[in-house]
Amino acid sequence: MEKKWWHRKIVYQIYPKSFKDSNSDGIGDIRGIIEKLDYLQDLGIDLLWLSPIYRSPLADQGYDISDYYNIDPRFGSLEDLQELIEEGKKRNIGIVMDLVVNHCSDEHEWFKKACEDPEGPYGKFFYIEDHKKGEKLPCNWRSYFGGSCWDYLPGHDDKIYLHVFHKKQPDLNWENPLLRKEIYKMINWWLDKGIAGFRIDAIINIKKKLPFQDYPADRCDGLSSIENMLKEATGIGEFLNEMADECFRKHDSFTVGEVFNEKDSELPLFIGENGYFSTMFDFSTTFIDETPVSTVEPLKDLAEKYKKAAFASHKRVEGIGLLSNIIENHDEPRGVSRYIKPEDLCDNSKKMLAGIYFMMPGIPFIYQGQEIGMENLPEVKSMEELDDCANPHLYQRAIEDGLSEKDALKILSLKSRDNARTPFQWSEDKYTGFSDTEPWLKVNPKYKDINLEKQKDDAGSVFNFYKELIKLRKNPDYLDTMVYGEFSPYHEEQKNLLSFKRKADKTILVVANYQNEPQSLVLDRPVKSILMSNRKDICFDNGAISLQGYDFIIAELEN
Ligand code: GLC
Ligand code: CA
Predict the structure, then answer these.
(1) How many domains does the chain have?
(2) Which of 39, 188, 396, 452 has the greatest CB tally within 10 Å of its CB?
(3) How far is it, in rounded angstroms, from Cα 161 to Cα 170?
(4) Cβ pair 88, 3 in contact under 8 A
């Protein structure tokens, strides 16, 4: 694999609305991020991905952009962002922006012009179709947030437009070269400002299978998941390659694609040498608890399923490129609440999970608050407590699947995106040090126990474990092995044991006892030294390690 500058990096995702409020309006902002740059430098991260801060009505929290060239005043100004870029550079932290170009906001001037004159040039920036009341829609695709992906074009009762997400997020028509040109111009404008790159939102949706057609209905609403269409859409590579050529390759930018459903044969094109993207997320573990119907039952064989998913996806890309590793992001519940049984959730199991995903091949991403072990919200009592536009669909779906109202709310507690969006838990002060006024989304009541202030100086805290992991990965003696070392599962068949080796100039063994019960692991060669563990006094005896529940070890083996 050709070495690239981003292979060695550690990325931190900020959800700006919930990170730090600097001006007492209850909404996190860019100046709040600047205030915390020293904290992020001390943690050891290299790249900061900001979820969208562009001008937006915030119908989908900024993933609905009404002006790509401006910052939303709630987050600050272009000057603030420029300062963040400069201050970041001083600390060797690059800024990665979110690139949302499958759709824009219905308040973007392109869409407004399209509504004024659907036959004009801006009408062709979108998917607009003629439609008379009572007629069949062009296709039966279900929008990701529920309901049909067609709505009447504002001001017209004989025209409709396509939105695969929220109705305030009209899809941009990538088949139109003029639209693509506008997008590339905008991307280059940002790259010329000195940002390090982009996280690329929902990008797999830009290629539609045309002409529009129905797919078999997969729920009682008579609609069909967009995924059924995406499976048949071909030719996205032409768009992605063009975008990479026009923008990213010229700037040697870091790009990470939010890609689902990619086909095996496409992997080298997506993330191989000179691929469309530098990397893309590994979402494989986020699917292990996705059953066809909603259920509040705990997942059976969690550890084995996690192991299988994580190992398989890295085997799949071996020799091709690097994936980006996550346990959570702003769209997922908190990783520790999802991948550890509730009864086993503690600092040690949180550290184990951190160690596993960090040591797998790939680029580690840390989502804000993950480094202090932030957890899901406790049981949600009513939908009003929450904010996300995806919640009603999640709830409705649970009801359709036959769950009681109480259990449907429980689904929100387990799955809502708001779990990850509550304010960062800085301290045990009122509003958890995020703001001095009531935040836009409620603080997780667990903040008295879980906050940075409490963990900062405690050598045994989850926070310091993350710091140590980052430091180890950056240690020049091990860096090549951690980044490029060959990955081989070790005793893969041993139940609830997740162990693997990474081998380059050194051999590193990673061992996790992914259960509460003890077990032991036989070693095939002597341990040279223990590089890290989440428990002192782990016992080695005659070539075996005795593991207590959730023990985690990184060791160097004799070569
Ligand atoms: C991505 C974002 C998500 C957003 C969606 C639509 O999946 O991560 O937050 O709702 O795209 O832009
Ligand atoms: Ca603010």
Answers:
(1) 3
(2) 452
(3) 7
(4) no
Tell me if 165 CB under 6 Å of ligand 1. yes
| Whether residue 333 sits in one domain with residue 198 | yes
pLDDT above 80 (res 392): yes
- Which residue is it, tokens 């009003």? 384
Q: Does any ligand 1 atom lie closer than 6 A to the CB of residue 100? A: yes
Q: Which residues contact 69 (CB under 8 A, 6 or more apart)?
A: 186, 189
Whichever domain contains 127, its CATH number is 3.90.400.10
**Within this chain, do residues 457 and 547 fall inside the same structural domain, yes or no?**
no
Task: Examine the domain organization and report whether 349 and 291 are in the same domain.
Answer: yes
Q: Give the pLDDT of residue 348.
A: 98
Is 172 among the domain residues?
no
Instruction: Please tell me if the CB atom of residue 60 comes closer than 6 angstroms to any atom of ligand 1.
Output: yes
Q: Are residues 116 and 220 in the same domain?
A: no
331 touches ligand 1 (CB under 6 Å): yes
Residue 262: per-residue pLDDT: 84
Distance (Å) from CA 485 to ligand 1 centroid: 33
Asked whether the predicted pLDDT for residue 452 surpasses 90, the reply is: yes
CA of 50 to the centre of ligand 1 (A): 13
- Report, as an integer, the average pLDDT of 334-343: 98
Q: Which ligand is nearest to the CA of 417?
A: 1
Q: Do 509 and 447 belong together in one domain? A: no
Ligand 1 pocket residue status of 508, Cβ below 6 Å:
no
pLDDT at 114: 98
CA-nearest residue, atom 9 of ligand 1: 331
Looking at the CA of 25, name the nearest ligand.
2
From the CA of 299, how far away is ligand 1's center (Å)? 26
- From residue 22, alpha-carbon distances to 39, 80, 226, 322 in Å are 15, 12, 40, 36
Catalytic residue positions?
A: 201, 258
Does 371 score more than 80 pLDDT?
yes
Helix (H) or strand (E) holding 221: none
Q: Which domain holds residue 538?
A: 487-557
Confidence of residue 531 (pLDDT cuts 50, 70, 90): very high
* pLDDT at res. 469: 98
Q: Is residue 74 part of a domain?
A: yes
Give the pLDDT band of residue 539 (cuts 50, 70, 90): confident
Using the mean position of ligand 2's atoms as its centre, give its distance from the Cα of residue 394 in Å.
29
> Token digits for 48?
């900061």
Looking at all shown ligands, the one closest to residue 27's CA atom is 2
Averaged pLDDT of the chain: 97
By alpha-carbon position, which residue is closest to atom 11 of ligand 1? 202
Type and span of the H or E element at 520: strand 519-522
- Are the C-beta atoms of 169 and 52 separated by less than 8 Å? no
DSSP state of 103: B
Residue 63 Cα to ligand 1 midpoint, Å, equals 6
Please say if the pLDDT value at position 55 is more than 80: yes
Which of ligand 1's atoms lies nearest the C-alpha of 390? 10
Closest residue by Cα to atom 4, ligand 1, is: 63
The letter for the amino acid at 405 is: E
Across 273-300, average pLDDT: 95
Indicate if 145 and 196 belong to the same structural domain. no
Q: Residue 492 sits in a domain of what CATH number?
A: 2.60.40.1180
Residues 430 and 495 in one domain: no
In this structure, the answer to whether residues 499 and 421 fall within a common structural domain is no
- Mean pLDDT, residues 271-293 taken together: 95
